[in-house]
């Protein structure tokens, strides 16, 4: 009934692990990368043609320049300047056309490259959003954002100008070699003897550059991950005066990327030096041998100049092809990191015949549910049926499995045994999007996005009207404090809602959930971090939110769940008690022990205040 997508070999390698074996760089990655140019094939083809035309025009220049030399030096004393004038005009025309086509190809291919990068980033980000929480728990945010930004940027040149330049330089190389041979066969043999040496050197050093480029990308990603963690937890860092620890950790990452970049620069400098020596050394020998031929009358000065320019073009083309080869090597390393992510598959199985859940009634049933994480059992043999509209409280000691219990309902995790049903059907029968649309979550640590209050509330239902947003805020006891802000609902809350208090953030989150209007509601210790005044306001808002919904409440203060329709007491991953507050207090057991212990602690705390 269910099919689990297969994982590629690249996906089996821990992302961001510097000690993990690297996947083999498959040239097919380049074909996958170039597939992103398909929407721009028209622009790309026109840009490629413009590049080829510009390259062809550049091959005419040495011929005309040679004729200009002969027209100037072989006609000394002549008053007929016609050949010289016509040659100069032809040169100006060639330069003008070459510049025109060069400008066209530069713009068109840059447009293609920018489009490909935008599409690739969108595709990668969209794919990341489909992965399960397990994936994000195993990988650092900084490493993922590095791949989304730096690595995608690295491949931009290859998906635009590099491919066209490869074609253009190939045309230039072939054309220049043919014209070299036609100009002087003997000099051509001498010149072409160097080319295999140059190409072999480029490939040898290029392979090492590709490997080191991957090391640079990995080191930058690791440093970014360290910075991301430190910045997101800056209050913890500062409270423990751990600034030096984080400086050292980030500094080590930067040093590793610097050393890798230094190795890459050394290899690139080595390649540049070797290429330069081979190219210009060969030209010096050609100039020496060609000069002897001119002195012997076997070659005209103009033909020697023409040959030298073609030889320079050959050398420049080989050097350019070497640079393009290096770009492709770097792109293969970066694309490998990108496709590792694109090849990742969610560990949540999908139904072959999913059934949309348009509007749930809210019935939830656990049928002998078990769950294990990393081989360690967390939940065991859960059997409980919750009718629609019932308020169920989950209590128990820390580590009992309460949060895991509620996280199974929206399929943040999947059961590893038994089945979980909503409205009588296994949750795996429903598309994830339609299932989660029926589930609202108000967690202990509310995450607000760095937009306005209105935008954060609209996150629950983006098509809601302004009146519906304000009504949701009123129901959540948030309207009064929001209107007190200078900009009201257009007030920017800052990253993670840092400009708001804890109680204000919770009420915005409740308004967001009210606007979503879910049939199943999960409250995961939604008031545990609040003071008494804020808790009272939030609790009143939560009571409005729970009306008519199937609600699962995890509460740290047992006094707040006395009116729950049902209380499930969990311990060591099992439900050990089930009943109302009065029933569980009468029976005696873990619930009464927990309640009485908490009651005594609260009494002692109040006595100390007095």
Automatic annotation (TrEMBL):
Identify the domain of life: Bacteria
Q: Which SMART domains match?
A: AAA
UniProt-listed SUPFAM superfamilies: ABC transporter transmembrane region, P-loop containing nucleoside triphosphate hydrolases
Query: Where does the sequence pass through the membrane?
Result: 42-69, 89-109, 162-181, 187-205, 269-290, 302-325
Per UniProt, subcellular location reads as:
Cell membrane
Q: Which organism is it from?
A: Deinococcus aerophilus
Mind telling me which PANTHER family this protein's record contains?
ATP-BINDING CASSETTE SUB-FAMILY B MEMBER 10, MITOCHONDRIAL, ATP-DEPENDENT PERMEASE MDL1, MITOCHONDRIAL
Task: Give me the stretches of Polar residues compositional bias.
Answer: 1-11
By its UniProt entry, which CDD domains does this protein fall under? Answer: ABC_6TM_bac_exporter_ABCB8_10_like (cd18576)
Q: Where is the ABC transporter domain?
A: 364-597
Instruction: State what protein this is by name.
Output: ABC transporter ATP-binding protein
- This protein's UniProt keywords: ATP-binding, Membrane, Nucleotide-binding, Transmembrane, Transmembrane helix
- The principal location of this protein is membrane
PROSITE patterns listed in its UniProt record: ABC_TM1F (PS50929), ABC_TRANSPORTER_1 (PS00211), ABC_TRANSPORTER_2 (PS50893)
Q: How does it sit in the membrane?
A: Multi-pass membrane protein
Q: Does the keyword Oxidoreductase apply?
A: no
Gene3D superfamilies per the UniProt record, alphabetical: ABC transporter type 1, transmembrane domain (1.20.1560.10), P-loop containing nucleotide triphosphate hydrolases (3.40.50.300)
Q: Domain ABC transmembrane type-1: where?
A: 45-330
Q: Name one GO molecular function term.
A: ATP binding
């Amino acid at each position: 009934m269910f099919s689990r997508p297969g994982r590629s070999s690249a996906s089996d390698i821990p992302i961001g692990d510097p000690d993990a074996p690297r996947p083999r760089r498959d040239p097919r990655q380049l074909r996958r990368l170039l597939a992103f140019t398909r929407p721009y094939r028209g622009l790309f083809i026109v840009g490629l043609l413009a590049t080829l035309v510009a390259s062809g025009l550049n091959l005419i220049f040495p011929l005309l320049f040679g004729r200009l030399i002969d027209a100037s030096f072989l006609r000394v004393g002549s008053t007929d300047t016609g050949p010289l004038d016509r040659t100069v005009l032809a040169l100006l025309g060639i330069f003008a056309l070459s510049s025109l086509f060069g400008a066209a190809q530069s713009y068109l291919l840059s447009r293609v490259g920018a489009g490909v990068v935008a599409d690739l980033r969108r595709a990668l980000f969209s794919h990341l959003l489909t992965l399960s929480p397990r994936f994000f728990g195993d990988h650092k945010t900084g490493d993922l954002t590095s791949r989304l930004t730096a690595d995608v940027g690295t491949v931009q040149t290859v998906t635009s100008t590099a491919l066209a330049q490869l074609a253009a330089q190939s045309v230039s190389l072939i054309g220049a070699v043919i014209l070299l041979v036609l100009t002087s066969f003997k000099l051509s043999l001498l010149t072409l003897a160097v080319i295999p040496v140059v190409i072999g050197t480029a490939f040898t050093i290029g392979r090492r550059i590709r490997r080191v480029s991957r090391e640079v990308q990995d080191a930058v990603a690791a440093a970014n991950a360290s910075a991301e963690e430190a910045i997101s937890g800056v209050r913890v860092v500062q409270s423990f005066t751990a600034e030096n620890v984080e400086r050292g950790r980030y500094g080590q990452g930067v040093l590793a990327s610097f050393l890798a970049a230094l190795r890459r620069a050394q290899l690139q400098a080595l390649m540049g030096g070797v290429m330069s020596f081979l190219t210009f050394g060969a030209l010096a020998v050609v100039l020496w041998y060609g000069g002897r031929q001119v002195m012997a009358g076997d070659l005209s000065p103009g033909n020697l100049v023409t040959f030298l320019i073609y030889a320079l073009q050959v050398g420049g083309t080989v050097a350019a092809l070497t640079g393009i080869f290096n770009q492709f090597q770097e792109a293969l390393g970066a694309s490998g990191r990108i496709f590792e992510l694109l090849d990742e598959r969610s560990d949540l199985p999908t139904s072959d015949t999913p059934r949309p859940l348009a509007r749930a009634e809210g019935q939830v049933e656990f049928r002998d549910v078990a769950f294990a994480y990393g081989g360690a059992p967390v939940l065991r043999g859960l059997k409980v049926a919750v009718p629609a509209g019932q308020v169920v409280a989950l209590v128990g000691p820390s580590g009992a499995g309460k949060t895991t219990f509620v996280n199974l309902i929206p399929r943040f995790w999947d059961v590893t045994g038994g089945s979980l049903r909503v409205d009588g059907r296994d949750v795996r029968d429903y598309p994830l999007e339609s299932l989660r649309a029926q589930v609202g979550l108000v967690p202990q640590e509310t995450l607000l996005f760095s937009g306005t209050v209105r935008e954060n509330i609209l996150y629950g239902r983006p098509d809601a009207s302004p009146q519906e947003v304000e009504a949701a805020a009123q129901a959540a006891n948030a309207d009064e404090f929001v209107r007190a802000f200078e900009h009201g609902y257009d007030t920017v809350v800052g990253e993670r809602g840092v400009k708001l208090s804890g109680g204000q953030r919770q009420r915005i989150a409740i308004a967001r959930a009210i606007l979503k209007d879910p049939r199943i509601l999960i409250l995961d210790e939604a008031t545990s971090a609040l003071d008494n005044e804020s808790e009272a306001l939030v609790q009143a808002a939560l009571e409005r939110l729970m009306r008519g919904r199937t609600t699962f409440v995890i509460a740290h203060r047992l006094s707040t769940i006395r009116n729950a329709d049902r209380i499930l007491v969990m311990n060591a991953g099992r439900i050990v008690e089930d009943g109302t507050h009065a029933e569980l207090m009468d029976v005696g057991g873990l619930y009464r022990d927990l309640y009485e212990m908490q009651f005594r602690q609260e009494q002692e705390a109040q006595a100390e205040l007095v």
